[in-house]
TrEMBL record:
Domain BRO1: 1-395
Protein name: Bro1 domain-containing protein brox
InterPro entries in alphabetical order: BRO1_dom, BRO1_sf, BROX
Short name of any one Pfam family annotated for the protein: BRO1
Organism: Anaeramoeba flamelloides
Domain of life assignment: Eukaryota
Assigned protein family: Belongs to the BROX family.
Taxonomic lineage from the root: Eukaryota, Metamonada, Anaeramoebidae, Anaeramoeba
Amino acid sequence: MFDPEEDPTPVNDFNCPLFHFSPPKVKHVKLTSVFGSVTESSKNQLIYINNLRKSVIDALKKDKNTINTTSMQNAMETYLPQLFALLDTLIDQGGETQVSLSFGWITSIHKHYKGGYRTFYNDFTYESVFMLLIYGFNIYNQGSTLHQLSLDDNEFKQEHKSIIKFLNTAAGIFHHIASIELESGGRISEKKLLKAPVECNSQICEALSIMCLAESESLVVRKAIQAGMKEKIIAKITLSVNSRWVRCEELIRSSGKEKFISQHWKEYIRSNVLLWSAKTKKYLAISSYKEEKIGQAQGLIQSALASLKKISYARRDQIAKKWLAHVQTENDLLIYYLKKYRKENESFAFEKIPNEEQIIALIPPKRGMVQIVPFSPPEKVNLQIVPKKSNCVLM
């Protein structure tokens, strides 16, 4: 049985697992074909870069359920400097590949992910976006996995800074994709951006960035409770988490790509909008109760329960089951509070219950607590790709 007089839900707020991205699917490309006929030394450079790309793909395929973080990160950090140099060389040649490349890739945020390689593109300029997405997913998953291993208070105290850094770093990568790689007038032409794949949409990538910050800030709530902060201050942080999830949802809806987005990912975002709205009202209710505003506390709890009842999460994998178990525990806790507050209000307080409009007015300004770790592209290597019958060096 819960006791609202004590530190509220010291465990329940933290047993909720973070999202986990399944490995993207990607096919091999023969990079020696990108530039058509080149000199022998240039061909050897392209073969080397091709092998680096292959090592990234091999790391993806090593485990069907997760991204192999160590081998993936090492492979990616070796490939990226070569990739960016190669793309610049391609732009110097006019931005078009010499042959039609048949390569495909798809990520788990796409609704056709389970069906296989539904997405095929003949344009190598999307490669930087896709590889950075893989890099961002990998770093996010490291934070998500470490969080699952650190639910114990002592473990969390040791690891929380690392988890938050992983999530904020991933946020910076996704933000870089949205604001730099997919910027109008950038490496990918505006004409191509109009027909770009789902994952090459700036609003979708920005939604990924904000999602990382929402997950990161949710961990700050745990630190705030452990530090003994007042419930009204905690409510400001939970409101900031909620507002980030709301923004994620808005970006997806306005992207023009919503119909291609995984239902699983959309449901996760929508469920978090509702969950963190409920948590905000819960902490405000506890604060109101301590201030002897019983009717206000009762109204806030009733509104929080109404938010939770709207959650619909069809996914039934292990993470989803744990997530829904967390929601059920939160629901049981709110029911306990409601019974207590209602009993006291009907027995002696007799205070008016605020309506939903009045409840919204009670919610304080949000208080953001995390920021992205800015991402800087790796320093490009010096490539010399020389076409046959030419003395010029494309840099």
